[in-house]
Amino acid sequence: MATIPQLELYHLIEEAGERGERVVVATVAHTRGSTPQRRGAKMLFFEGGAVAGTVGGGCVEAEVWAEARVALRTGRPALHRFSLTADEASEEGMVCGGTMEIFLDVWNAQKT
């Protein structure tokens, strides 16, 4: 999955709002060490199960998706820290070894 251009991101959020669908926007807020994405990378998680963009792939994205489901259910934004230690990275076949902080922001549907 590729990073998502900013214009496309807001277009997808707008479409979700028109459908009455809540969206979680995951943004890489901070990185340290070797990470799969840089600060500012974004991924969208829709109530219907669709996703767009990427914040890293592999196990990081699976963990972010799990936290996004919580945010979709509760409507609460949160900052999450993910460690990609050398041990965890080698177990998953990754080449990373840093840490990432990812902010999950909840955009509520606003039908017009």
Account of the 3D structure:
The chain is α+β, with helices and mostly antiparallel strands and 112 residues long. It has one domain. It contains three helices and five strands. The chain has helices at residues 6-19, 58-74, 86-92; strands at 23-32, 42-46, 51-53, 78-83, 99-107. It has a five-stranded antiparallel sheet with strand order 3-2-1-5-4, sandwiched between helices. A hairpin with a 4-residue loop joins strand 2 and strand 3. The protein is globular and about 45 Å long.
Keywords:
alpha+beta, 112 residues, 29% strand, 5-stranded antiparallel beta sheet
Q: Count structural domains.
A: 1
Strands of the largest sheet, in order across it? 3-2-1-5-4
Oligomer: single chain
In terms of structural class, how would the helical and strand content be classed?
A: alpha+beta
Q: Indicate the low-confidence ranges by residue numbers.
A: none
How many β-strand runs?
5
Strand content: 25-35%
- Distance, first to last CA: 31 Å
